[in-house]
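Hi team,

Below is the intake form for HTH tetR-type domain-containing protein from Paenibacillus selenitireducens. Please confirm the fields before the structure is written into the shared record.

FORM ID: S-0412
PROTEIN: HTH tetR-type domain-containing protein
ORGANISM: Paenibacillus selenitireducens
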Amino acid sequence: MVTSQRILQVALEHFAKHGYSGASLSKIAEEVGIKKPSIYAHFKGKDDLFLQVLDYTLREEFQATIQYLKQHRQDSLHDCLYGVLALQLNRYEESVSMMFMLRVSFIPPMNLHEQVMHRFNAHLEEWEHELNHTLQAACDAGELQVTDPNQVTTAYLCLCDGVLTELLYSGKPKAFKRLDASWIYFWRGITST
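The structure came back. Fields below:
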């Protein structure tokens, strides 16, 4: 593995576990098997390393979500949308990238807040676009009768935010409990005519 890629991977694990403030470039370098000054041959500093780790995780996690959405568009809308939320909850335990991304999106480092949110929102807009496309296709197929699929996307993302917040603070079992309770009303709300 190329040194810069190895640094990114180890840094991801450290940032996910210890946060921005708690992660140490010295410890990252030690785990990679290099001296701390060698990190600066690949990255400008801790901020640059953190933002590159963030870029990697945002691409990976949003791509996984969008890929799932595209692969399951032929499923019922109910199963497709619920499946995306379940995927995110399950990935939190399976993927250090997801853990890092969620923590950073809710509590970004103060000195990098604007840069983090700009990056996060750019990926979120792409996901919203795919959700809108999926919902519009469901409307066109007669599976969903709503006047504004964009409002459904907004409500869905709100549900997603609530479930992911529960995941961060209370863990996967409670997050699934919240998802299942909320899902009934969300689905009923968008499908009742």
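SUMMARY LINE: The chain has nine helices and no strands.

Thanks, M.
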